[in-house]
Design goal:
Length: 174
């Protein structure tokens, strides 16, 4: 998720600018899209207790993945903004779900270490993504391919959480 988030949102104004939007419009659209992160985060924070950690996380991840793919294929301003809003909303919902889900996957005695390692690997993705995305933009593969990569990375994370993680809501995790 870190790879997708930092690879995408750091380059989003440039992507919109390359699609023909002025810098002012690009920054404005990104601002509007970014505002959707607050309700996404708050919704997931509420859902993890009502619906469950895993269900909230995997739902947000798959919907963020689909939104990323659709954003890359968008061919109109309305579609860009709508897909960007959904992408922003569900990415932050996935992050909110991740924080509580991940920490609870480890026994108490290893919780800080486990979460630290998980966060550290996430930071590697955060550091690499802007460079790789910039390179991909430079070789002009097309936005469908670049956002398709974001889709694929989120899909891999989705499969990992579905197959390896377990639900902890309402369970004694000590």
């Amino acid at each position: 998720m870190n790879y997708t988030y930092y690879g995408m949102f750091l380059w989003l104004p440039s992507v919109l600018s390359e699609k023909g939007y002025s810098l002012v419009h690009s920054l404005g659209y990104v601002l509007v899209m970014t505002l959707a992160q607050v309700p996404g985060y708050l919704t997931a924070a509420w859902l993890v207790e009502r619906w469950g950690r895993k269900k909230t996380l995997v739902t947000a991840m798959i919907l963020a993945a689909v939104a990323a793919l659709l954003f890359g294929l968008a061919n109109s301003t309305a579609m860009l903004i709508v897909c960007g809003l959904f992408l922003s909303y569900f990415m932050l919902a996935a992050f909110a779900g991740t924080y509580i889900f991940t920490v609870e996957q480890f026994p108490t005695v290893a919780r800080a270490t486990g979460m630290g390692w998980a966060a550290g690997f996430g930071r590697i993705g955060s550091a690499l993504a802007p460079f790789i995305t910039g390179w991909l933009l430079g070789v002009h593969l097309g936005y469908g391919w670049i956002f398709g990569l974001f889709f694929a990375i989120l899909l891999v994370g989705f499969v990992i959480v579905v197959t390896l993680g377990y639900e902890t809501r309402g369970k004694d995790i000590h």
